[in-house]
Amino acid sequence: MRFFGMxxxxxxxxxxxxxxxxxxxxxxxxxxxxxxxxxxxxxxLTGEISxxxxxxxGDGEIAGQVNALIQEKTGAAEYLSRAARLMVSGGSLKTExxxxxxxxxxxxxxxxxxxxxxxxxxxxxxxxxxxxxDGHEIAFAELFTDEEAARExxxxxxxxxxxxxxxxxxxxxxxxxxxxxxLIEQSGLTLMYPVxxxxxxxxxxxxxxxxxxxxxxxxxxxxxxxxxRIGAEDMITMSARSAERLRADASEGSLTDIPVKIGDSMQExxxxxxxxxxxxxxxxxxxxxxxxxxxRGVSLMTDDLDRKWEKSxxxxxxxxxxxxxxxxxxxTPRSEWLTEMGIPDRTAEIDAEKAEMNRLVPGVCDYxxxxxxxxxxxxxxxxxxxxIILTL
Length: 392
Prior knowledge:
This protein is α+β, with helices and mostly antiparallel strands. The protein is 28% helix and 29% strand. Helix 1 runs antiparallel to helix 3.
């Protein structure tokens, strides 16, 4: 009886804790134009049971409406209830979230791992995207001028670009039909798959980020559209404004929507995201590849002091795919960034030997100093961007 009394008291404590929210240092962001802020709510009961989910603070009426939708669409309320039951029956349940507010739009995704629906361990994505002007849930079709054409464009890109690389890294790789769960960010649209259709070697449900540049021809870029409000147009267009945003992000030691900062611990990053493949070597260091749609085409650069890397720090971030403030590897001509970013602080030729040592192609590399960091834009012999690299 004493044990069950303790559990009842713990459950009441759980309910009280969920009413308290604290700033989410890793993922939550504020809207630049409104007073809305996303914060982290939830609790950690044991090392195996923790539930976290986003909460919107701001205008009372809209925030209340949106938070009810978050609870419904992400399953947060059920996860909290299930966590309390698992304290009695035993089991593991961990949820975490990512996302934020951009241009009056909230988009957030919650990942749940463990005894999500039954005692059997699994992995599940849920997500919600809301227009904070009126509180309605944003549908996939609202992002595009032609929904069917958008789906066809994504399907073609998945089949031609993504599918050939997946088999070695995933247990399941059924990319089509497209899943209904999605997250939108400044850099692109992330598709969240059921674990039965797309799963990593670590048994996590897979996700794939589609850069807005892939959807350029079907993206709704009318004034006041959802993509324009969240900054998607600036992501796919090289301009003075996008160049300024690029420099600002780089000066912070990070690249937009890649959840890594130079100086971060590789051990902590691999614990959270898991390694996709074994590290690869380059001149003076190693390249690490992590699981997750946000790391597709992205590698992390570390030292090469010895074979053990557990104490290594991130020395650089390299992006070979996607789009970043008008810079799209495989698409953007060098002339565009020279026009908008100005004369580089330094330019160096990449000959065949240098290219092979650094997993690049022959061409040139332009260096721009951004605060304490160095932004490197590498182009091939046709002067088309191939890699974006940020280092100390």
